């Protein structure tokens, strides 16, 4: 099975994808790991897309987490399921703020080998704030995924929209039971 977990930054995509991958005994692929270089530099799309395609082709099944809408032609080419973590605005905002505080406090490296860490200044007082990004993109992400769910070119894909933590828990249990 090939699954892409999508949703606004801070919605819980990576956590859900990890848990789903574990429940299904599939590899978990985090797009941010493939995308980010040290010092918050982004890989050029050509390199990013090549590495993404290589990772996806390396296994007959996987759980991929991440949006990177421009990569849809690669990641949705042979996908079976898109799981959309679509929690409400206030829930998502609460989660992204909580996560930013924890990460800034712990100074944990976000992606191995990059040295990239969140700081209080970056998270709360910067134009590059993940919190600000989440606020700005929440509505447009919802519109994009609602549109994709009804787009004829994606009719081969099963979409699951999760609107709460309890729905997510039930979904993981049902997928694990069918594995």
Description:
The protein is α/β, with parallel strands linked by helices. The protein has a single domain (2-88, 138-178), classed as Rossmann fold, CATH 3.40.50.300. Helices cover 51% and strands 15% of the residues. The chain contains 8 helices and 7 strands. The strands form 2 sheets. A 5-stranded parallel sheet has the order 2-5-1-6-7. A hairpin with a 3-residue loop joins strand 3 and strand 4 (41-42). Helix 1 (13-24) runs parallel beside helix 8 (165-178) and helix 5 crosses helix 7. This is AAA family ATPase. It comes from Halomonas binhaiensis. InterPro entries: Cytidylate_Kinase-2, P-loop_NTPase.
CATH homolog superfamily = P-loop containing nucleotide triphosphate hydrolases
Radius of gyration: 16 Å
Q: What is the CATH architecture descriptor?
A: 3-Layer(aba) Sandwich
- Shape call: globular
Assess the beta-strand content as a share of residues: 15-25%
Strand order of the largest sheet: 2-5-1-6-7
Order of helices and strands: EHEHEEHEHEHHHEH
Which whole number gives the mean pLDDT?
94
Q: Give the oligomeric state of the chains in this entry, treating copies of one chain as homo and distinct chains as hetero.
A: single chain
CATH classification class: Alpha Beta
CATH topology heading = Rossmann fold
Number of helices: 8
Low-confidence stretches: none
Helix content: 40-55%
Give the tally of β-strands: 7
For the sheet with most strands, the description reads: 5 strands, parallel
Whole-number tally of structural domains: 1
Broad structural category: alpha/beta
N-end to C-end Cα span: 10 Å
InterPro entries: Cytidylate_Kinase-2, P-loop_NTPase
Organism: Halomonas binhaiensis
Protein name: AAA family ATPase
């Amino acid at each position: 099975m090939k699954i892409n977990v999508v949703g606004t930054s801070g919605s819980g995509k990576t956590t859900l994808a990890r848990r789903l991958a574990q429940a299904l005994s599939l590899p978990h692929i985090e797009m941010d790991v493939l995308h980010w270089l040290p010092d918050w530099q982004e890989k050029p799309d050509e390199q990013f897309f090549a590495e993404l395609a290589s990772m996806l082709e390396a296994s007959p099944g996987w759980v991929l987490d991440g949006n990177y809408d421009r990569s849809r032609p690669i990641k949705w080419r042979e996908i079976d399921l898109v799981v959309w973590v679509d929690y409400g605005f206030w829930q998502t905002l609460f989660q992204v703020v909580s996560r930013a505080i924890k990460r800034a406090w712990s100074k944990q490296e976000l992606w191995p080998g990059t040295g990239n860490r969140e700081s209080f200044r970056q998270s709360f007082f910067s134009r590059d704030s993940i919190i600000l990004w989440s606020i700005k993109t929440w509505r447009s992400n919802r519109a994009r995924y609602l549109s994709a769910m009804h787009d004829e070119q994606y009719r081969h894909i099963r979409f699951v929209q999760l609107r709460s933590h309890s729905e997510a828990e039930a979904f993981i249990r049902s997928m694990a039971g069918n594995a």
